[in-house]
Design goal:
By secondary structure, this protein is α/β, with parallel strands linked by helices. It is built from 10 helices and 8 strands.
Length: 262
């Protein structure tokens, strides 16, 4: 799984979504993240088709929404996602939240059947806490491949990172720029100035140093390229320590149906 991907949340203008996906792939991205609830899977599929990149070279992920997590709905909605994405399979399909129709003993075997059928390469979960992950592992007989959660310098997810490392789970960070809040953090802007970089690049480089895959949302070519340039930014041990020491905490995504965060 490429450690920097393109997030597409809120990019629901299908033409714009297709253009941003095509642009990202032509810049060099090989990881595209979407979801059923984003209502842009058709745009993502169009963007992949328009880019001069083979489908097999793209790591494509989507997510099943909380009202489609009964076994029959998992199967049906995933096939509908594949149709919209114009692909025979996705590399990773997530349970979007442990909420709504989610019932581990029923939902997760339905995902495993999709793997057996060749429609999904890997099972992922999103917004899961350690207790949810333990339960998922008990049902599946192994840990999910990845857990996608909000993570950025203002929400470092230390305990969850430690859990993931112990259990060989990939962590994927959504809202890795804290919905723009990273641009107002002096530590990040100071480090960015010292490297002739942006605060976004610093945040993404910090996540990479933590072994976390980031999927920043971007629509314009300028932002897509700015985020991509983070791959060339090497932070010093002092830089990382300064970011680790930021004492401000700011969770940006906390819906009523979300878990009781640890």
């Amino acid at each position: 799984m490429p450690m920097l991907g393109l997030g597409t949340w809120e990019n629901d203008d299908l033409d714009q979504c297709a253009d941003s996906v095509r642009t990202a792939l032509e810049v060099g991205y090989r990881h595209i993240d979407t979801a059923q609830i984003y209502r842009n899977e058709a745009g993502v599929g169009d963007g992949i088709a328009a880019a001069n990149v083979d489908r097999e070279d793209v790591f494509l992920a989507s997510k099943v929404w909380i009202d489609k997590l009964s076994p029959a709905d998992v199967a049906r909605s995933t096939r509908e996602s594949l149709d919209r994405l114009n692909t025979d399979y996705v590399d990773l399909m997530y349970v979007h939240w442990p909420a709504g129709e989610y019932a581990p003993a029923e939902t997760l075997p339905a995902f495993a059947e999709l793997v057996d059928d060749g429609l999904v390469e890997r099972i992922g979960v999103s917004n899961f806490e350690p207790a949810h992950l333990d339960e998922a592992a008990d049902v599946l007989g192994e840990q999910p491949f990845a857990n996608q959660v909000e993570m950025h310098p203002l929400l470092p997810q230390t305990e969850l990172r430690e859990y993931a490392a112990r259990n060989d789970i990939e962590l994927v960070a959504y809202s890795p720029l804290a919905r723009g809040q990273v641009f107002d953090v002096p530590v990040l802007t100071d480090i960015a100035d010292a490297h002739d970089a942006s605060a976004a690049q610093v945040s993404l480089a910090w996540l990479r140093e933590k072994g976390v895959t980031a999927i920043p949302k971007a629509t314009s070519e300028a932002h897509i390229r700015d985020n991509w340039a983070s791959l060339g930014l090497d932070l010093s041990a002092e830089d990382i320590a300064r970011i680790d020491d930021i004492d401000r905490r700011d969770r940006r995504v906390d819906p009523d149906f979300g878990p009781d965060w640890e």
